[in-house]
Each structure stands twice: as structure tokens, then as C-alpha cells.
Automatic annotation (TrEMBL):
InterPro entries: aa-tRNA-synt_IIb, aa-tRNA-synth_II, aa-tRNA-synth_II/BPL/LPL, Anticodon-bd, Anticodon-bd_dom_sf, Thr-tRNA-ligase_IIa, ThrRS_anticodon, ThrRS_core
Family: Belongs to the class-II aminoacyl-tRNA synthetase family.
The protein's name: Threonine--tRNA ligase
Keywords of the record: Aminoacyl-tRNA synthetase, ATP-binding, Ligase, Metal-binding, Nucleotide-binding, Protein biosynthesis, Zinc
GO biological process: threonyl-tRNA aminoacylation
Annotated organism of origin: Candidatus Curtissbacteria bacterium RIFCSPHIGHO2_01_FULL_41_11
Length: 399
């Protein structure tokens, strides 16, 4: 890492985004500004999946361990889970949302015509990592995945994987990244028979070919219950991150005994697809923080514009400008400290606020603002309405 570059913990401190405390190792305390980034990212992810037929659910964090025994996770994953006795029974904090999503699936009779059923969930997950390996937002014990479980008929796998690859490409493009694809195949420690694995791997490979994306193979790196497509990006520092994943699962519908009623009236097993676009949101925001070095694009910036009155005399006008921006849903602050304009401009640039709007006598007379960007560029005077139009363009373009 270039020594000039800062890590997300340092940037998080300087920009007042989040902090870490010894009382909760491996968990993030989100401050108002960091939580604004988190919520903005989440709203974006919701907005694009809601139009693609996803329905959001929420399931309990604390469940009886026997659910994970049934799903098969206990055998492969219990060391990574927080398990403890409540009254006379073992309970676990969920390390993943999958088994519970199957309970929602089987809460009523599902017909072949109900599929695909796409259930998204942003549930809080816990995994037991050793204290020694915890590190900022990258290795945590408590996190949230932008998770979804899609229940499909076998004949729908291909189309659904195609849709998902398109979705991944769209999301990453809009965030300014070029995704790379890998097909991860059967590991040594795997559940299920060879034929099912071969078919599943062939399905994923066909979808990759149909989508005309370049991909490589990751031999034996699939999940224990099925093969997967891993999606990687490179950040501004040339580091490789695995974020999104699309996993085919033939085992969990079996172990959780879920079924749909087929055309012929018979019971059939659906196939389950697990997918995350960003993976852990905590880790993803950590990566974005370092990728942008705190200079978040306008749409993600916790404060998008700051109004800087030249002196006390213009506080009332500055408040009026700030109010107008607020009602246009721009995240705005007002700096009416008793400091020089130079100091205020410098501080707003250090806080990486995209726009500083200077207001004095001339601006008040003409109902305008003098806009400058954090890179020091002067954009001249414009009406508040024109400024709103300008910043909305930035927000829409995600620039
Ligand atoms: Zn899952």
C-alpha cells in the first residue's frame, strides 16, 4: 500500500464516519455520517432489486441451533457460530439467512407458477472470528449481507443466473467498477452426488458463456452445498476483492425438505440460489472508503453541500439557502462559525464535502450562491435552483 494512502479506520476517524471500541470487538459503531453512507447504499440496492421482483423479508437473529443441525450448517460451520444455552436448549446467533428463508418459503403451499420466488434480506449476522484476526471493517463478527434467496424450478436456473449476472454488472458499473468472474467448482468436502454437481457446474458455466463475460475457474473453491460464481473487483490501489457471489444449492432444499406443487400435481424440490451483490455491507463500505480515500461520489457523500456565509450579516440568507436545499433533499450543512472564509473553505475540503456555497452581499441581492467544488474549482454564481439541478445531475450519474 502506498504510504500516503490512509486506511478506512483513519479516514473514518477524520470524517467522523464510524468507530471501533474494545467493548464490542469486531463490530462497528456507526456515527451519523457513516450511517448516512450505509443507508444510502442500502436504498440504492433496494431500489434496483425491488423492480426485479424481489420481496424483502426479515427473520430472527437468535434461533434454536437445531435449525442449523437440520440445514447441515452445524456440521460444517458450528465452530464459526456463537452458540449458547438458553433455558435448557442450545441457541445460535444466525451466521447466515438461508435456513430461515426456507421456513418462509414453506410457510404456505407454493405452486410451480409461484416460482421464481425471490426473497431478499438484510439481516444482522454473527460469525465467531478469533479476536486476533479482527481488523476494522474487513474482518468483523457482526455484519449484514445484501442477501437474497431465490427459489426456482430446475428449468428456470439458466434464466435466473443470466438475470443475476446482468444485475451484478449493472450494480458494479454504476459504482465505477469492472467486475471479474470466476466459476468455483466442487470442493473436496462436499455434500451431494457427483451427477448433481456436474449439472450445476454446467448450468453456471453456460450462463457465463451466454452473458459473454470473461471468466476463470477456481478449482475446488465452491461451497460445500453447490458450485458458485464469484465476482471480484480491483480497487483504486490495485487490490483484488471478492464481493458478489451467486451460489447454486441443491442440498438445502433437500435437508430443509421444501417443495412446490408441479403442473402434474406432484411435489418437486425447488433449487435455491444464494446471492449477494456487495457481500458484507460493512466490508464493502470499508473498501469504498479506502478506494475513494474519503472523497465519496456526491450521491454517497454524507454532506453534499455546505453553505458558507461571508460573515454574521449573511447568516439569515445562508439559512434560507440551506432550507431550500434541504427541501430539495440535498444533504446540507451550514458553517456559521466565527472563522475566516479561507478557513471554512479549507475545512470543508478536508471534510471532502463536494460543494461549498459561499454567500455574501452580492449573492443575497441576486438570490444566488457562489459554488466551488472540493478540488478547488470555482463554478461561479448561480441561482439556488440551478445549483440544485447541477448537483442532482451528479447524484443521478453517481459521479
Ligand atoms: Zn444463503
Amino acid at each position: 500500500m502506498n504510504s500516503q494512502l490512509k486506511d478506512h479506520r483513519e479516514i473514518g476517524r477524520e470524517l467522523d464516519l464510524f468507530s471501533f471500541h474494545e467493548y464490542a470487538p469486531g463490530a462497528i459503531f456507526w456515527h451519523p455520517k457513516g450511517w448516512t453512507i450505509y443507508r444510502t447504499l442500502l436504498e440504492y440496492l433496494r431500489s434496483i432489486t425491488n423492480v426485479q421482483g424481489y420481496q424483502e423479508i426479515s427473520t430472527p437473529a437468535l434461533v434454536k441451533s437445531k435449525l442449523f443441525e437440520k440445514s447441515g450448517h452445524w456440521k460444517h460451520f458450528k465452530e464459526n457460530m456463537f452458540n449458547f444455552q438458553v433455558e435448557n436448549e442450545m441457541y445460535s446467533l444466525k451466521p447466515m439467512n438461508c435456513p430461515e428463508s426456507t421456513l418462509v418459503f414453506s410457510s404456505k403451499t407454493r405452486s410451480y407458477a409461484d416460482l421464481p420466488l425471490r426473497l431478499s434480506e438484510y439481516g444482522i449476522l454473527h460469525r465467531n472470528e478469533l479476536t486476533g484476526v479482527l481488523g476494522g471493517a474487513f474482518r468483523v463478527r457482526q455484519f449484514t449481507i445484501d442477501d437474497a434467496h431465490i427459489f426456482v424450478r430446475p428449468d428456470q436456473i439458466q434464466q435466473e443466473i443470466d438475470n443475476l449476472l446482468k444485475l451484478v454488472i449493472e450494480v458494479y458499473k454504476s459504482l465505477g467498477f469492472n467486475p471479474r468472474f470466476y466459476l468455483a467448482t466442487k470442493p473436496d468436502k462436499a455434500m451431494g452426488d457427483q451427477k448433481t454437481w456436474d449439472e450445476a457446474e454446467a448450468d453456471l458455466e453456460k450462463a457465463l458463456k451466454d452473458s459473454e463475460v470473461k471468466y476463470d475457474i477456481k478449482p475446488k473453491e465452491g461451497a460445500f452445498y453447490g458450485p458458485k460464481i464469484d465476482i471480484h473487483i480491483d480497487d483504486s490501489q490495485g487490490r483484488d476483492w471478492q464481493l458478489a457471489t451467486i451460489q447454486l444449492d441443491f442440498q438445502q432444499p433437500e435437508s430443509m425438505d421444501i417443495a412446490y406443487i408441479d403442473k402434474d400435481g406432484g411435489k418437486k424440490r425447488p433449487v435455491m440460489i444464494h446471492r449477494g451483490l456487495t457481500g458484507s455491507l460493512e466490508r464493502f463500505i470499508g473498501i469504498l472508503t479506502e478506494h475513494f480515500q474519503g472523497t465519496f461520489p456526491v450521491w454517497l457523500s454524507p454532506v453534499q453541500a455546505i453553505v458558507l456565509p461571508l460573515s454574521d450579516k449573511f447568516t439569515a440568507y445562508a439559512q434560507k439557502v440551506a432550507k431550500e436545499l434541504e427541501s430539495a433533499e440535498i444533504r446540507v450543512e451550514l458553517d456559521n462559525r466565527n472563522e475566516t472564509l479561507q478557513a471554512k473553505i479549507r475545512d470543508s475540503a478536508l471534510q471532502k464535502i463536494p460543494y461549498a456555497l459561499v454567500v455574501g452581499g452580492r449573492e443575497e441581492e441576486t438570490n444566488k450562491v457562489a459554488a466551488r467544488t472540493r478540488d478547488g474549482k470555482d463554478h461561479g454564481q448561480m441561482t439556488v435552483g440551478d445549483f440544485v439541478k447541477k448537483i442532482k445531475e451528479d447524484i443521478d450519474k453517481k459521479s
